[in-house]
Design brief:
This protein is α+β, with helices and mostly antiparallel strands. Helix content is 32%, strand content 16%. Residues 145-174, 550-609 are annotated as: Disordered.
């Protein structure tokens, strides 16, 4: 029996063929559209250690791309392609890209249930319908030809075989490229391939053989690269025995390290033979235990709070910085739910906060630990968008991993069919040593805080269901009051999230009332960000629902269409941001501890074949 191979059948098969044809269609629309596509993909921020890597300048060339690169392109394709095609076909292409990413996220799950397999069966049916509709009504709506690179490659291959004047003669259904005089042949999109046909076997083969990582060739090819690296360390003679001896030596050393760690009570070093919980090593090489909710360094560079306030008098983002910080500290000292936006204590009580030596300590990163849908412990590293020092506040050189998500906490009694998460951009990571003067507290206690800029969900956008669109968020305007910025407890963060600018919506400069260091660009912010729900499998299951490793499994029906079983991924409380403009900072208090399930929006309503 031929087993499924998602790497070659889908990522390097169905998806690669579709991507190639979409690029051909963009060439037919206009060369400037191809340039814009390359620009957008290069501006996609990376995520995680290697979940989403930095995408190169020339995606349209499709040069030197591995399967993991095509996977990254698929996961980020929706905002990159949005608005590049004529309106009459752009909507269909967006729906197809959403369905492809949704199918891919479910098919690659490492832990399946009956509900996820039933969802995959429905998504497979929907994907087939979308692909057929694209082939019949969209793919050939434009006259498409080979891309210039495809034409050049074909010409070189034929010239190597001895062809003379290949491609220089004109022919019907062809067009010529000016730089080489090479004829570009007409290219049509076709579903008549085995790889498309094989997609229908995934559900049955997963039930029979297990998850797709069991039958995928990805592991074997990765091991092949490992052996090639080991081969380079030999003298190229009798290399088999040398590789075997080196492998045995590495395993023996790892075993000794584990025994030493166990004897001293230290975390076990990560390695293939480590069966117990591994410590996580991030891109900076720092190790943090995974049993904590978050990890922040013990020490940091300190700055005087009074000096910081003097340096930022002209920065509108710091207008309410002092009062919000003291209000947040007071609430936590009293063990009360702190406010997400408006102060809850009168200004007269702020003097009760004793900030040791008037110092706050800044940190360059924080690491959030969470349980995945398949009951594993993972970690996201978040780096603040601003750098604080004694000389002032500047924008950080790397602002690509600064977004977090947390449980939406509404206290206005609204329906729980709203969005279950809140989103924020982390501007600063601090800790301070504080005590309460009025209670006679003798010892200072450490308090970790995040200074954030809120993002609100666009209430006017239809997402999920038949719309097949990503949620999008935008910054809360500071005209709403102090709620555009705020302080939160790091323990309230679920994990980091991946937000990509909605390039088609452009930028705006009216969200802040003055000059500030927190703008995304020079004096401008992106109007919207797309929430990348397919960035990894755990994130996809948080929006789909039903993750075994997530806390809550209540079913939340989507009002737009019936569900198979879209249970929530865990302890998600709803969000319903309302405002006189796009977003709002109202109704963000943390006095509710109730959990809710989110509306799943990935099992699509299908017509019978």
């Amino acid at each position: 029996m031929l087993c499924i191979d998602i790497l070659h059948e889908f990522e390097l098969g169905v998806w690669k063929a579709l991507l190639q044809h979409l690029i051909r269609m963009l060439h037919a629309v206009g060369e400037n559209k191809v340039v814009e596509l390359d620009r957008r993909f290069h501006q996609v921020p990376p995520f995680g250690r290697d979940t989403i890597r930095r995408i190169g300048y020339n995606v349209s060339e499709l040069k030197q791309l591995a399967a993991r690169d095509f996977e990254d392109i698929l996961q980020c394709a929706l905002p990159a392609f949005e608005g590049l095609f004529p309106p009459e076909i752009d909507s269909t292409i967006q729906s197809l890209l959403f369905t492809l990413a949704d199918w891919h996220s479910v098919a690659k799950l490492r832990m399946h249930t009956d509900e996820t397999l039933e969802s995959l069966a429905l998504l497979t049916k929907s994907l087939g319908q979308e692909l057929r509709h694209f082939e019949e009504h969209v793919a050939n709506a434009l006259e498409t030809f080979e891309t210039p690179r495809e034409a050049r490659s074909r010409t070189r291959r034929k010239q190597k075989k001895g062809g003379a004047d290949v491609g220089r003669e004109g022919a019907g259904g062809s067009t010529a490229t000016a730089e080489l005089g090479v004829t570009r042949k007409a290219k049509l999109y076709s579903l008549s391939t085995y790889k498309v046909h094989a997609l229908g076997d995934y559900v049955s083969q997963i039930r029979q053989f297990g998850t797709v990582d069991v039958t995928s060739t990805q592991l074997g090819e990765a091991r092949h690269r490992q052996k090639k690296r080991q081969y380079e360390r030999t003298n190229k003679r009798n290399f088999e025995s040398q590789i075997a001896a080196r492998t045995s030596l590495i395993e023996n050393i790892r075993f000794i390290d584990q025994q030493v760690a166990l004897a001293k009570g230290l975390p076990l070093p990560a390695g293939p033979s480590t069966n117990q919980q591994k410590a996580y090593v991030d891109e900076e090489g720092a190790v943090g235990p995974l049993d904590r909710r978050y990890n922040i360094a013990e020490n940091g560079d300190w700055i005087l709070l009074s000096k910081l306030l003097q340096q930022t008098t002209d920065d509108c983002a710091f207008t309410h910085f002092h009062e919000q910080l003291l209000d947040h500290i007071l609430a936590r000292l009293h063990s009360l739910p702190y406010s997400w936006d408006d102060p809850i204590f009168p200004a007269s009580e702020y003097k009760d906060v004793d900030l040791q030596k008037d110092r706050i300590y800044t940190h360059g990163s924080t690491r959030f630990n969470y349980t995945t849908y398949d009951i594993r412990r993972c970690q996201d590293t978040i780096k603040p968008a601003l750098r604080f020092s004694s000389s002032g506040v500047t924008r950080s050189g790397t602002t690509t991993r600064c977004h977090v998500m947390m449980i939406a906490d509404e206290d206005d009694g609204q329906s729980r069919s709203q969005h279950p998460y809140w989103y924020a951009k982390v501007l600063g990571v601090f800790h301070c040593n504080v005590r309460h003067r009025s209670t006679g507290q003798d010892d200072y206690e450490r308090m970790d805080v995040l200074w954030i800029r809120w993002l609100g969900v666009d209430p006017d956008q239809r997402v999920g269901g038949r719309s097949r669109r990503l949620n999008r968020v935008g910054y809360v305007p500071d005209s709403d009051g102090p709620g555009a910025f705020g302080f939160i407890d790091p323990a309230d963060v679920i994990r980091g999230c991946h937000l990509i600018p909605s390039f088609n919506e452009g930028t705006r400069d009216d969200l802040l009332t003055g000059a500030s260091s927190v703008y995304d660009l020079d004096g401008e912010d992106y109007r919207y960000f797309s929430i990348m729900r397919f960035v990894d499998r755990d994130m996809a299951m948080r929006y789909r629902g039903g993750g075994i490793g997530h806390m809550n499994h209540g079913v939340q029906q989507d009002s737009q269409r019936p569900q198979v079983n879209d249970s929530d991924s865990g302890s998600e409380r709803e969000q319903d941001d309302t405002s006189d403009e796009e977003f709002s900072s109202n109704n963000r208090s943390s006095d509710s501890e109730s959990n809710t399930s989110e509306s799943g929006d990935s099992d699509l309503e299908l017509d019978a074949d």
